[in-house]
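Incident log, support desk, overnight shift.

02:14 A customer reports that sequence design results differ from what the structure should imply. Their input is reproduced verbatim below. On-call engineer (initials T.W.) acknowledged and began investigating.
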């Protein structure tokens, strides 16, 4: 590992303290033009003794604004200390987890996976418009029917039509014949450029897409495309559990990747990650943001620097091998639960390298599903699936208690 090292709490505290000292100090009285300040000390008491041992909370009180994309060079100088930590996070994730060469990617901490996916569509829409002098009407998004609804949002916001591809009901794999059918249908509707979304674990099933199913058809038809990987759920698991996958930057066709730190990484909400190969982010440069130092090319604009610190702290607390052990533990618990379902002839879908189990709704009593807060695939009408997500808090005791409530399938 080049960057992903395990640091002690004292080492982290020292690093964050130094970063905050490099940021603007509002109490010195020299900050007249920045529309920002620390958190209001009448509400958020900044002299509490416990803050000296809580670097993340100190960062929240300091309230750094990480507007912009700091991997590109110039940024607002007021928060350069904590911006550097965000740059470290982007480089660590790009290189040590997602197999990019050093200094090969740009990126930033987003509000979540939805923003990161929308950022990708925004970049690639503009790329095709600027490079090929085309309108949004000639661009298509293609993604599996299991893809996260954020792509439907992106389609609506950026005026790029979404074409869903069918998956096999049991394997949740892309149906190859339907990929070609969907692309040819898009061509008939005047689409000539394609934004491809490949899933590194879908939200409902944890299923994983094979990027070559898309790219082989697009290359055969000589169609321009950009490939984005949605790893909002699987991004902190799958590269560890399946290190040789084609869903990282080791695959030269992958242009960008979404991660979501407030899921598996258990960071505070509002901590997604957008990673993209260098040379592509400038396609969304907002010329109107003249008063912002550097290039404001993010959907979010102003955003909390504390979230970048939170992600950095979690990664440095575990180190790569500590994180690997955590993922292996969760997968073993998932294996155990699947074995118990097999013994009871309960049908389910589970990708062997993921910690999501989607149980056939017909094989589990609704009361049991509701008791354990299993999530249905729909809240409108009767669900077909209920999912279990084996997160860190889901221990063997809870899984055993759940399994003890299961009966023979209602129908089979």
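02:41 Re-run completed on a clean worker. Output:
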């Amino acid at each position: 590992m080049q960057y992903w090292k395990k640091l002690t709490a004292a080492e982290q505290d020292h690093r964050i303290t130094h970063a905050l000292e490099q940021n603007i100090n509002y109490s010195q009285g020299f900050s007249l033009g920045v529309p920002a300040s620390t958190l209001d000390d009448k509400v958020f008491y900044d002299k509490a003794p416990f803050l000296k041992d809580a670097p993340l909370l100190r960062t929240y009180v300091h309230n750094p604004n990480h507007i912009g994309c700091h991997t590109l060079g110039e940024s607002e100088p007021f928060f350069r200390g904590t911006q550097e930590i965000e740059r470290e996070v982007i480089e660590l994730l790009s290189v040590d987890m997602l197999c990019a060469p050093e200094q090969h990617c740009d990126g930033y901490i987003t509000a979540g996976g939805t923003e990161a996916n929308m950022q990708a569509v925004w970049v690639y829409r503009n790329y095709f418009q600027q490079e090929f002098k085309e309108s949004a009407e000639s661009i298509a998004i293609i993604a599996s029917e299991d893809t996260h609804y954020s792509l439907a949002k992106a389609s609506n916001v950026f005026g790029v039509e979404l074409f869903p591809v069918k998956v096999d009901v049991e394997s949740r794999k892309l149906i190859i014949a339907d990929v070609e059918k969907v692309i040819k249908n898009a061509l008939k509707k005047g689409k000539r450029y394609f934004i491809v979304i490949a899933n590194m674990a879908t939200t409902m099933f944890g299923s994983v897409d094979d990027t070559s199913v898309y790219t082989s058809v697009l290359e055969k038809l000589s169609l321009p495309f950009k490939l984005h990987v949605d790893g909002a759920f699987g991004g902190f698991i799958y590269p560890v559990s399946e290190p040789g996958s084609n869903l990282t930057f080791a695959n030269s066709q992958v242009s960008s990747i979404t991660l979501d730190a407030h899921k598996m990484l258990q960071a505070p909400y509002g901590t997604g990650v957008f990673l993209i190969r260098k040379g592509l982010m400038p396609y969304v440069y907002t010329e109107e943001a003249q008063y912002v130092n550097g290039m404001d090319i993010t959907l979010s604009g102003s955003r909390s620097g504390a979230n970048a610190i939170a992600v950095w702290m979690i990664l440095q607390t575990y180190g790569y091998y500590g994180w690997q052990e955590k993922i292996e533990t969760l997968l073993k618990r998932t294996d155990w639960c699947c074995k118990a379902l097999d013994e009871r002839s309960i049908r389910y879908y589970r990708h062997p390298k993921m910690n999501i189990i989607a149980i056939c709704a017909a094989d589990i009593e609704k009361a049991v599903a509701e008791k354990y807060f299993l999530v249905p695939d729909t809240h409108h009408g009767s669900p077909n699936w209920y999912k279990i997500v084996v997160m860190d808090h889901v221990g063997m005791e809870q899984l055993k208690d759940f399994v003890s409530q299961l009966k023979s399938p209602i129908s089979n």
